[in-house]
């Protein structure tokens, strides 16, 4: 059963319901002919059934389809309680009533009924009989005797459908489909119901129409429904293959749930306009769209699954970069305006630069990189101008950032680490676009900044929250090496002291993680006046997007079990809250939580370099394992059995010229055949270059004997 919900806010809804049968599919199209100055609720829906012997009610009164709720006043019995289930239980079929519009509209008045001819009365009654409820009333009246005249029945209909003021008493527009099958013992029968919708009028809050991309492909919900039914087997097979692959892991249910559950945000929060513009709410209907400092953590699954959308999003919003070189914060509710005060967020420029490199490494889109280059240069130039003392680190105007209710000062470790990560990424970008001189300049700054970061901010246990001359804040921030997280996760070498980094990771986990609550954004292990700061909901808060990022940072740097503990704590907490698919930060389905995808990447050590058709595979999961991998060209499983790594494709393919491993391989096979390689050793890994490209297909696994 399905209500027609269209134009629900309008006084004249002008609903129409229509049944059609085609290619073994019985479909019910719910439509409206209403007009509105703000037509966001104007569209249509389609409900269909396939399999068995179908029957239907195209449209009738909602009360009749809800058992026991339809009270019908009649002088014959005082009143009757009618519901569709009584005849349906007896026959297993609906009455095939094909009423397309509300019969209460245009009913003759009492005086018109009295003055109408018998022929006119019969014509009116015949038209009303196409409604399931009214047909039921007429049938019961004619079969129960004594005989009631049609004129009397028409008066009865009017009394029940409209009040004295002429307003409807019942709600029309509900339709129903059924399918009847007979099965013998041991037999099976398949019946499929399909629901589709088409609401093409996507309007911004000021009434500007931007539409939906799907309006370019489908005229109405009926076309959508036919497409779904015609391609059902293919779509179901591919969807189940992807879902099963994503959950086919030995790393435990919390890990599998983490990287799959937050994909729901892609359904809830995204805009894709008719003109091709793409954006995602920071939180559902909250804060803004395409929020740079939230995309930084949350966009990993987007670039893996729908890279063309991520790249188009970056291309569009960066056109709003200001004259100083500052990157926009987000769209303020539409594509027409960005958050005017958001440019002051000092973390967004370096985050943008790192995302540009990540996008290029995952897609190999050279045009994208070259189009981004002027914006990268301006973003880097601005952030570099915030270094007032020449130590290579920002120390001016650093207070306002993604933690927008928690101000910092001087040189914050969070901002400085992002800057180091951006320098690391910018060096690679400049090299890729042939800007050798600029690359060398940033490389020199990177060396200076990395040295200053360790020397200025490391306090022996972790990196201080900030240092400003002789003043410093010793809060222990979970996000203190955020730039290292992102840069290393996409395959860049670490730029910090390895000893200090390891000590800091251990300290953050020890101080900030609580198995009951999760990972706090900050704690005050050295006590003191900083304790007061933790009363700030952002400083002392728990954000799952930051927790997932930190968990993947731990994994990526050898603390796999600690990272898993964090993921398990997040999982328990949201199960207790009854919303495992909906992580709330500022608004529901908060997109930062999609950083959960990074735990899959870190556990597998899966770091693609699409421009060079290269892949780093340095898994940190211990022992034998299975972990999914996903790119736009295909998806599959990375597994280890004994001393053999296997890369298999479940769908699509992965083309490789080389693979980077932690240690040399004893043998490499593709589809069981030996693959000749040239081995080159680096500082902490080896590169295996194939003499001819290797293509991992569903029929041919790549096996690496360690």
Structural class by secondary-structure content: alpha+beta
Helix content: 25-40%
What is the CA–CA distance across the termini?
A: 58 Å
Give the strand content.
15-25%
- In DSSP terms (H or I, runs of 4 or more residues), the helix count works out at 21
> How is the biggest beta sheet arranged?
6 strands, antiparallel
Indicate the overall shape: elongated
Uncertain segments are none
Q: Looking at the chains present, what oligomeric state does this protein adopt?
A: single chain
What order do the strands of the largest sheet run in, or round the barrel if closed? Answer: 21-22-23-29-25-26
Radius of gyration: 32 Å
Q: Please tell me the overall pLDDT.
A: 95
Number of distinct beta strands:
29
Give a description of the structure.
The protein is α+β, with helices and mostly antiparallel strands. Helices cover 36% and strands 22% of the residues. It is built from 21 helices and 29 strands. The strands form nine sheets. It has a six-stranded antiparallel beta sheet with strand order 21-22-23-29-25-26. It has a five-stranded mixed beta sheet with strand order 19-20-24-28-27. A hairpin with a 2-residue loop joins strand 1 and strand 2. Helix 12 (307-317) runs antiparallel to helix 13 (348-363). The longest helix is centred in the middle third of the chain and has 22 residues, at 436-457. It is elongated and about 100 Å long. The mean pLDDT is 95.
């Amino acid at each position: 059963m399905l209500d027609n919900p269209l134009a629900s806010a309008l006084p004249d809804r002008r609903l129409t319901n229509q049944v059609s049968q085609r290619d073994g599919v019985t479909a019910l199209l719910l439509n409206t002919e209403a007009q509105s100055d703000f037509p966001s609720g104007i569209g249509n829906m389609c409900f269909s059934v396939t399999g068995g012997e179908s029957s239907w009610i195209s449209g009738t009164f909602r009360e009749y389809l809800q058992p026991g709720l339809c009270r019908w006043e009649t002088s014959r019995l005082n009143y009757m309680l009618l519901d569709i289930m009584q005849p349906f239980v007896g026959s297993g079929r609906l009455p095939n009533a094909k009423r397309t519009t509300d019969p209460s509209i245009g009913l003759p008045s009492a005086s018109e009924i009295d003055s109408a001819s018998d022929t006119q009365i019969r014509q009116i009654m015949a038209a009303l009989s196409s409604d399931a409820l009214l047909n039921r009333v007429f049938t019961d009246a004619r079969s129960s005797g004594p005989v009631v005249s049609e004129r009397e029945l028409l008066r009865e209909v009017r009394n029940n459908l409209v009040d004295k003021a002429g307003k409807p008493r019942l709600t029309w527009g509900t339709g129903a489909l059924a399918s009847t099958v007979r099965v013998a013992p041991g037999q099976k029968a398949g019946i499929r119901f399909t629901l589709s919708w088409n609401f093409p009028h996507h309007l911004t809050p000021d009434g500007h129409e931007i539409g939906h991309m799907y309006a370019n492909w489908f005229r109405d919900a009926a076309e959508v429904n036919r497409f779904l039914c015609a391609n059902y087997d293919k779509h179901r097979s591919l969807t189940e293959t992807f879902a099963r692959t994503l959950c086919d892991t030995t790393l435990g249910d919390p890990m599998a749930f983490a990287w799959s559950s937050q994909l729901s945000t892609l359904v809830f929060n995204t805009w894709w306009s008719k003109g091709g513009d793409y954006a995602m709410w920071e939180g559902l209907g909250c804060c803004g769209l395409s929020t740079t400092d939230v995309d930084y953590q949350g966009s990993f699954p987007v670039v893996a699954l729908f890279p063309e959308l991520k790249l188009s999003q970056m291309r569009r919003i960066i056109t709003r970069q200001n004259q100083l070189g500052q990157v926009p914060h987000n769209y303020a509710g539409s594509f027409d305006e960005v958050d005017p005060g958001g440019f002051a967020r000092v973390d967004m420029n370096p985050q943008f630069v790192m995302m540009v490199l990540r996008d290029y490494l995952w897609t190999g889109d050279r045009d994208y990189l070259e189009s981004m280059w002027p914006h990268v240069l301006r973003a880097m130039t601005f952030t570099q101008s915030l270094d007032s003392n020449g130590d290579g680190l920002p120390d001016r105007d650093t207070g306002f950032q993604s933690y927008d209710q928690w101000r910092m000062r001087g040189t914050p470790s969070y901002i400085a680490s992002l800057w180091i990560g951006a320098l690391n990424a910018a060096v690679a970008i400049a090299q890729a676009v042939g800007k050798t001189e600029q690359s060398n300049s940033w490389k020199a700054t990177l060396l200076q900044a990395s040295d200053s970061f360790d020397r200025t901010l490391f306090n022996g246990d972790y990196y201080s929250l900030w240092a400003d001359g002789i003043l410093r804040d010793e809060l222990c921030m979970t996000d203190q090496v955020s730039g290292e997280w992102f840069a290393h996760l996409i395959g860049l070498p670490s730029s910090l002291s390895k000893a200090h980094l390891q000590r800091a990771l251990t300290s953050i986990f020890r101080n900030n993680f609580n198995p009951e609550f999760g990972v706090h954004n900050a704690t005050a292990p050295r006590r003191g006046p900083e304790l007061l700061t933790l009363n700030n909901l952002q400083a002392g808060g728990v954000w799952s997007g930051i927790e997932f990022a930190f968990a993947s940072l731990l994994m990526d740097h050898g603390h796999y079990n600690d990272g898993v503990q964090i993921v398990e704590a997040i999982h328990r907490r949201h199960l207790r809250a009854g919303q495992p698919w909906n992580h709330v930060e500022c608004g529901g389905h908060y997109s930062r939580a999609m950083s959960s995808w990074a735990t899959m990447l870190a556990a597998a050590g899966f770091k693609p370099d699409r421009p060079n058709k290269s892949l780093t595979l340095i898994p940190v999961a211990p022992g034998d394992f299975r972990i999914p991998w996903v790119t736009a060209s295909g998806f599959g499983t990375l597994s280890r059995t004994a001393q053999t790594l296997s890369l298999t494709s479940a769908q699509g393919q992965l083309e490789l010229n080389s693979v980077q491993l932690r240690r040399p391989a004893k043998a490499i096979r593709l589809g069981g055949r030996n693959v000749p390689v040239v081995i080159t050793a680096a500082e902490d890994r080896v590169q295996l270059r194939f003499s001819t490209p290797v293509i991992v297909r569903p029929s041919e696994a790549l096996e690496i004997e360690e």
